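Worked example

This section walks through a single chain of length 413. The input is the sequence exactly as stored; nothing has been trimmed or padded.
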Amino acid sequence: VSAVAEFKAGFAQRDVTPEHPQPMWGYGARHDYPSTGTMDPLMAKAVVIEAGGKKAAVVGLDIGRSPTFRSMDAIIAAVKEEAGVDYVMVSGSHTHHGPVIELLDKPGYGKGKFDDAVAYVGILQKKIIECIVEAAANTVPAKIGWASEDTDLNRNRVSKREPKPRDPELCVLRFDTKDDEPIALVVSFAAHPVLASIMDRRWSGDWAGVMQRHVEGQSGIPCVFMQGASGDLSPNTNPQRRGMEGFGAAIGEAVLAINQQVLTRVPKNPDIQGKYDFFSFPARLDFQDKLLMAVFKQGFFPEITAMMVELEDNIVRPRLVTVLVNNELALVGGTGEFFSDHAVRLKRESPAAKTLFFGYCNGHTMYIPTEAAVEEGGYGADPMFAWVPPHAGREMIDTALQNIARMLAGGTP
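Given that input, the structure is written out below as tokens.
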């Protein structure tokens, strides 16, 4: 294998816990009440892989969503320039105990009232860039492997129809050095991190943070969590795995067991291909409507409408990123809260040997329900929080499947 084609991987992390009290993201009932401290640190963790002259970054973030499009554009440009990273996938874990990251340095959108929260947007952006650049500098010749299991760890929180859709897969990707020293684990699973108490206003990664620390504590291997299509999925708790700590430890134990089954190897055909796709859909709501905006302002807090700035002319612009690793592992990331059946279909129909879906990735375009879910109605399927038209998710998954097929065929996606 030539040096340029050799497969490499590297890891880095940054603590991204806000240093000042600021509004928390996730629950309308908390309005703009400031955070009161830290339960557990919020982290950004990056794995950068390299092969055939291309580099891709997979970044897990203990925050409710991924950075805004404006921030993502800056991150993507900076890591390309500073570290030659071609493709970036940043996913928020969707914890509901992280900071609001949409506020702007403009009156009415945060300036003057939430200056710490406005400044944090830039701090977070800078730390994510540093994290990716450091991971790229840390790359060494590597092996890759994965194993997964269908679990009962999540449940559908929306549908009344049987069988209720869900994506049961818990997947563990592992990167090792050629001497079998672990570099990092990437854990892919879908369920809302909503087990921490709504009225506890301390920063926390919720069960996803507990899971990562549990795995790291037991194995000594850095653990990156990549949330999946969890728009309609909740943690499936029971008396043996109750609350954020209990559930986080239980899923951590499942990850450790799956990790025992992972066999890493030097890839036969080291290669990275990727593609960004940009979509435009008419919004199901009229964001010029003052009454509607009043509902959002009252339901959350007035400055949160800064997030609507991305919706120029009532167009929702979701994004998709498709990365094919070594012609066998397909990674697909989409902006927003995809309903689980989108990921189930992607995995079922993908021509790649292994396919994973990362939600809340590279921006946030709210819920992306399936057409069946929109027809049934319910939270996350109704226009208030699902702004894209019913067919949007299907079109995005269609595009991902076409991308993977073209990449495997050696064509240009």
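What to look for: The mean pLDDT is 98.
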